[in-house]
Amino acid sequence: METPFTLPFEAFWNWVVTHPNCILRAGTPEAVLYDDEDLHWHFAAEGGSTLLVQVLRGKRLMGELLVDSEQTTYVQAVQGQHDDEHLFELITETEKDRIVGCFFVLTHGYEDESTISPGRVH
């Protein structure tokens, strides 16, 4: 298993919204949304700091996660359970606690978009 690394939430969010077809699942400790062939992921914002992650079938909402960007301290990335799974945990850290608020599992690890050629298709 590779060593975990951290990145700022804003960098992760800007990256993950450009990779919706790479998401296998996303969730919280209480609920998980799974990808499927006839579903697609949609990202939106509601208010100043509330971000939405939605799973849609056509125009029908199948599930939704709310992410509070102001509560997310950083994102920790690690190798997932399988070789083709990469886990990104949105961490909220206080003086006393370290909590995983949400997570995303993608088919590949984080890539700095500035190093990728413009013609690349995902």
Briefly say what this structure is.
The chain has 122 residues and is mainly beta. 7% of the residues lie in helices and 48% in strands.
Summarize the structure in words:
The strands form two sheets. The protein has a six-stranded antiparallel sheet with strand order 1-7-8-9-2-3. It has one domain (5-108). The two termini are 25 Å apart. The model is unreliable at 115-121 (pLDDT under 50). It is 7% helix and 48% strand. The protein has 122 residues and is mainly beta. The protein is globular, with a radius of gyration of 14 Å. It has one helix at 9-16; strands at 5-7, 23-27, 32-34, 40-46, 50-57, 60-68, 74-79, 86-93, 98-106. It contains one helix and nine strands, in the order βαββββββββ.
Report strand order across the widest sheet.
1-7-8-9-2-3
Determine the strand fraction and express it as a percent band.
over 45%
Shape: globular
**Rg from C-alpha positions?**
14 Å
Biggest beta-sheet profile: 6 strands, antiparallel
Key terms:
single chain; 122 residues; mainly beta; six-stranded antiparallel β-sheet; three-stranded antiparallel β-sheet; 1 helix; 48% strand; globular; disordered C terminus
Task: Provide the fold topology.
Elements (H helix, E strand, L loop, with lengths): L4 E3 L1 H8 L6 E5 L4 E3 L5 E7 L3 E8 L2 E9 L5 E6 L6 E8 L4 E9 L16
Antiparallel strand pairs: 1-7, 2-3, 2-9, 4-5, 5-6, 7-8, 8-9
